[in-house]
Specification:
This protein has about 140 residues and is an alpha/beta fold. It has 2 domains: about 1-40, no CATH class; about 50-140, 3-Layer(aba) Sandwich (Rossmann fold). It has 5 helices and 6 strands, in the order βααβαβαβαββ. The strands form 2 sheets. Strands 3-4-6-5 form a 4-stranded mixed β-sheet. Strands 1-2 form a two-stranded parallel ribbon. The radius of gyration is 15 Å and the shape is globular.
Length: about 140
């Protein structure tokens, strides 16, 4: 089966900005025929996905589980939201959640949703002395 990458971004201007101003860094990845760019809210897309639709789901929504920008984003990190992510993944699939900071309650919620969880510190850039963010890697085993 052919690879398909869906890039879902809520704000269309962010897509435009990446095409216009970051192409020198990103190349033409958004123009690759395997990439589908969707200006949409990722939450209903995941909620309405057929079971087992995705091998991998990478999420960088708001500031992570804290949802500082829009309070409705917290639904993605709720038990119901995590169940939707779990259902949308294929068996053996993986979800990765970007977080601005560590969140033990969210980590516990992931584990309570049948994910095997690993937290991975992430640097802002390669030369950074220490990690500033955290990636929650959630495997559906």
């Amino acid at each position: 089966m052919d690879t398909v990458v869906e890039v879902v971004e809520l704000i269309p201007q962010v897509i435009d900005w990446n095409r216009e101003h970051l192409q020198s860094l990103n190349g033409s990845y958004l123009e690759d025929p395997r990439v589908q760019v969707k200006p949409a809210n990722v939450i209903p897309l995941i909620q309405n996905a057929a079971p087992g639709s995705y091998d991998v789901i990478l999420l960088d929504v708001d500031n992570g589980p804290v949802a500082m920008v829009a309070s409705k984003n917290v639904s993605l990190y709720s038990k119901k939201g995590l169940n939707s992510v779990y259902r949308a993944l294929k068996q053996g699939g993986r979800a990765v959640f970007w977080s601005a900071s560590a969140d033990k309650i969210f980590e516990g919620r992931l584990e309570g949703s049948n994910f095997k969880v690993t937290s991975v510190p992430a640097k802002v850039h390669d030369q950074a002395k220490r990690a500033a963010y955290l990636l929650y890697v959630a495997d559906k085993s």
